[in-house]
Amino acid sequence: MQIRLDGKFALVTGASGGIGQAIARSLAASGAAVAFHYSSHADTAHASVAAVQGEGGRAVAVQADVADPASVQAMFDAAERALGPIDILINCAGIDGKQAPSWEIDLADWKKVIDVNLYGTFYCSQLALKSMVARKKGVILNISSVHEVIAWSGYSAYTASKAAVSMMSKTMAQEAAPFGVRVLSLAPGAIQTDINRAVWSDPEQMKDLLTKIPLGRMGKVEDIADMVTVLVSDVGGYVTGTTLFVDGGMTDYPEFAHGG
Ligand code: BGC
Description:
Blueprint: E1 9-12, H1 18-29, E2 33-38, H2 42-54, E3 59-63, H3 69-83, E4 88-91, H4 107-135, E5 138-143, H5 156-176, E6 181-188, H6 197-200, H7 203-210, H8 221-232, E7 243-246
Parallel strand pairs: 1-2, 1-4, 2-3, 4-5, 5-6, 6-7
Helix pairs in contact: 1-8, 3-4, 4-5
The structure holds beta-D-glucopyranose.
Residues 96, 145-147, 189-190, 195-196 line the site of beta-D-glucopyranose.
């Protein structure tokens, strides 16, 4: 079994850091030409592109506000001009928003999370599907979260957006399957990145977090990136319309290891 993506073009949103950057690098290492999307961190995206090119790969950096359909259209135009028609879309751009109970959260902050995580994923997927359905091939993988099924106090917009992305993926998968196009989600657990730095840099919070993870450690970005690469390759060719949880067992109800 070989995981190779030679001749494929992949666009990865949110590729200037964290999980998205690792996914984009993993796809490139498997032979794909990769467009690294960034919102504001141009320097990191361009550094990744230079690194891929240095290893003999093809890559470009593309900027967009994924919450703006015109900006998404311009990004697709630029990426496809540079690297050809899209074969793989990874929707990884996302924010968790400000932490506050639902009755206190500012409406604009709540809506911003939905705009980026849900509308952004929809805008990118719609453009990719238009091209993939016409060409009768392609795969879209949405980065969801364990919080598509686990409630999380203080993050009602985030949990709502991830649950919505999950069901949107399944519906798109059903629509696109007759055209040979796959759509699926991958739900990471607690992966050590900037988004949860406040938790893992505080020993007390880290101790609490580890009680929620049966495998006893936070995830590494490679745990997600390499699984994504498998799923979008031909090895994952029979997987569509579902969410794969890559979470060290976080969704396995660890509090039920005792009692009941
Ligand atoms: C969040 C992380 C969190 C993890 C597990 C992710 O979706 O972005 O901050 O550590 O879920 O709760």
